[in-house]
UniProtKB/TrEMBL annotation:
<dbReference type="InterPro" id="IPR008948">
    <property type="entry name" value="L-Aspartase-like"/>
</dbReference>
<dbReference type="InterPro" id="IPR024083">
    <property type="entry name" value="Fumarase/histidase_N"/>
</dbReference>
<dbReference type="InterPro" id="IPR005921">
    <property type="entry name" value="HutH"/>
</dbReference>
<comment type="similarity">
    <text>Belongs to the PAL/histidase family.</text>
</comment>
<feature type="modified residue" description="2,3-didehydroalanine (Ser)">
    <location>
        <position position="144"/>
    </location>
</feature>
<keyword id="KW-0963">Cytoplasm</keyword>
<dbReference type="GO" id="GO:0019557">
    <property type="term" value="P:L-histidine catabolic process to glutamate and formate"/>
</dbReference>
<dbReference type="Pfam" id="PF00221">
    <property type="entry name" value="Lyase_aromatic"/>
</dbReference>
<comment type="pathway">
    <text>Amino-acid degradation; L-histidine degradation into L-glutamate; N-formimidoyl-L-glutamate from L-histidine: step 1/3.</text>
</comment>
<dbReference type="GO" id="GO:0005737">
    <property type="term" value="C:cytoplasm"/>
</dbReference>
<keyword id="KW-0456">Lyase</keyword>
<feature type="cross-link" description="5-imidazolinone (Ala-Gly)">
    <location>
        <begin position="143"/>
        <end position="145"/>
    </location>
</feature>
<dbReference type="GO" id="GO:0019556">
    <property type="term" value="P:L-histidine catabolic process to glutamate and formamide"/>
</dbReference>
<dbReference type="InterPro" id="IPR022313">
    <property type="entry name" value="Phe/His_NH3-lyase_AS"/>
</dbReference>
<dbReference type="InterPro" id="IPR001106">
    <property type="entry name" value="Aromatic_Lyase"/>
</dbReference>
<dbReference type="GO" id="GO:0004397">
    <property type="term" value="F:histidine ammonia-lyase activity"/>
</dbReference>
<keyword id="KW-0369">Histidine metabolism</keyword>
Amino acid sequence: MSKVVITGQDLTVEQIVAVCRECAPLELSEETKKSVLESRQIVDDLIAEEKVVYGITTGFGKFSDVVISQDQCKDLQKNLIITHAVGAGNPFTKDIARGIMLLRINNLAKGFSGIRLETLQTMVDMLNKGVTPIIPEKGSLGASGDLAPLSHMVLPMIGLGLAEYEGEVLPGAEAMARAGIPTIELSAKEGLALNNGTQAMTSAGTLALYDALNLLKVADITAALDFEAQNGVVDALDHRVHDVRPHSGQLATARNLLKLLEGSKNTTRQGEIRVQDAYSLRCCPQIHGASKDAVNYVKEHVNIEINSVTDNPIIFKDDRAGISGGNFHGQPMALSFDFLKIAESELANVAERRIERLVNPAYSGLPAFLTPNGGVNSGFMIVQYSAAALVSENKVLAHPASVDSIPSSAGQEDHVSMGTIAARQAGEIGRNVRRVLAMDLMVACQGIDMRGNKGLGKGTQAAYDLVRKEVARLEEDRPLYDDINYCENIIADGSLVKAVEEAIGGSIEL
């Protein structure tokens, strides 16, 4: 597995996934080490000169006007962490927790934070040796950074809190000892350098984004299968229709569907069976395309954030200044992840409508609920119910978290982003969307069989074959959850997209 070299400048979404989910090793570049040492020297000089700099020689938040003496600096940093570690709820998943550490490392590696090199190396060692802090997922306002989650991240480093090591949740000190990593004592500025930033929201949101990019491709695959099952009218995909309204996602979706359906004998032309399809088929390029454009917008902003400095104060080497600003404020990510939530939700909204059109005999012209023997058999009746429930839940979760703000720190921090809530909701919505698309995948294959398969397209044939490898045509009622689970698994592990892309000889466009 390729090693990820941390420079603070060029971390990618794909590298984040490799470290977080595949445990790819990482190391600090030599230039990074030099920059970190130079930044630290400035902090030491500021303390020696007794300069008034926020969080280094002052208290925090409302206490920013309280000057801290040199002999209190270490207590200040430790107290910052232990009092701010007040998260709530279930722990973040392991991949998100690892992402929080990785993104904080990359932020600190830029050399604007004044952290000691040995402290930064401790975090690298924890990732490489598999010590994962237990970080509660709730309790961040998303401004002043993700204070509570990042403080929980730090606790095992100082011998406190909890961490997972080799599949076991242990006291932080014990996890570090078993991994052979010495705990540390925080020095001046280090507590603030570790817990003031947007890394919790950005980790959760980046992994949700990565999964959403896969779902965009899957949505085009399931829509193409629905075209097959419903004798869809492919004239609506004609490039001329989309050339005169050239949104990039719309153009890409229309091209994708034509590639997937190439060679199909089930689709129709305008007027052969009907003049036009319902919107859930006919407007797929416009609907899926708008979500593609939105998700690509989010990716652009995530790529900026993962390589940015979100610390406070920021240490500048040119004039040896420590400037207090607001780069910890999560608003750029909060709005982005709220946008991601909406874009994802729409994929499930339209997929559920396509499921309904197949199971409803008034729309499909097929036996009700796609069962040959209705009455004693319910067929796919409740599959649509379940999809509708997930879609409805998404509508609640998609409400923008960023429109809310509650002042904190006695009014000093009077506007906050709630971006971490948005990021968590984006992940939850994505999981719901994946389940709905799995149902759409299964229902479409049943619809194709019941309609009478005259011959599938290049891409749809590959998708159909992969589904039918484990999911048989439904003749009599049987438990369906295993079938749905299989369809969801081939979506989640990427095997569906891989099989289809191999069949069409190229990538499904985003």
